[in-house]
Amino acid sequence: MRMVLRSALFFGLTARLSLCAAFLVPLLAYGEEFVGPPLPPSIVVEMMNALDKPRDYVSEKFVNFVSGVDRFFGDDRHYQEANDSVLQLDVVRMFGYTGEHRFVLSARANVRLPIAEQKLHLLIETDPEQNTVTDSKQTQLQPQTPTQQATPQGLAAALRYVKAEAERWHLSADAGLKFRGIKTEPFVRTRASLEAPMGEWRAKLAETVFWFNSIGTGETTQLDFERTLSETVLLRATSNATWLHETQNFDMRQDLTVFHQLDERTALLYQASVIGVSRPQVQVMDYVLLMSYRYRLHREWMYFDVSPQLHFPRERNFRASPLLSMRLEILFDESK
Fold first, then answer.
1. What CATH number did the domain enclosing 86 receive?
2. Domain around 119
3. pTM across the whole model
4. Angstrom distances, CA of residue 211 to CA of 129, 173, 301
5. What pLDDT digit, counting tens, does each position of 17-27 carry?
6. How far apart are CA 160 and CA 190, in angstroms?
């Protein structure tokens, strides 16, 4: 299994280097072969300006489609970077190889405060650690989905300062308290993301650095490569790793996801994932195949999805282990 994980990591690295090379080499070759006097600056400016409109049109369509997909599926990227106020409630029912039929409850709110030029937000969330780290043992793969606890283990409140440039970069910094019974635990967290076009692909790098009194210091890195395959289909490859200082361990996950929008009310998600750890040695902990059917029950604020999953966990000697997840999501925001 070590060889499988190393091969996957090597393949991902070489694929990304190939994309960079494919983008850079033609430019270098063009620069070497160009012969003749340089063009007047005014003509160069006009030529570059002529490219702006088609580029902006394609970029706008691509960005709007991706943002729409993320919002429809309740993706964590949309929650972290959207500037609108929202309260999200999730009720999840899971059946599967763990032998437990349980409900999982979670909630979080992001309220934009009418001060500091709308750059200051109030955050309220259950189990903030679970919204920050990557847990290799989790059975729900989408970052925003709650983990094993049937009830929230704590409620947190924080202030967030946000600064962003539309469709390019986003920076946020949080400071808050987690309330666990009569105990209070401080935490701080900062997140930065940067987007860059790469031909027909778009790359997005997000870095989160955090400190929680309960788990200590750590950081999470996520790298997405995505492109549209058609007007209704999006392909996304995601590499995610979380490092904790206390355990000196990386929890890693590689996802290949296809989003397919069937109509205005329904969409499908197909995902293949490899989950691993770096200690006591680099090894795969789980292979996962899943499909998620998401349906908008009412207007744009009530959604239901059902997700049959097939896990191949190390703890079961990689035997096929089915899991079924059903989720009801309710949003309180500006949508009607």
1. 2.40.160.40
2. 60-332
3. 0.72
4. 9, 12, 33
5. 444 444 433 43
6. 9
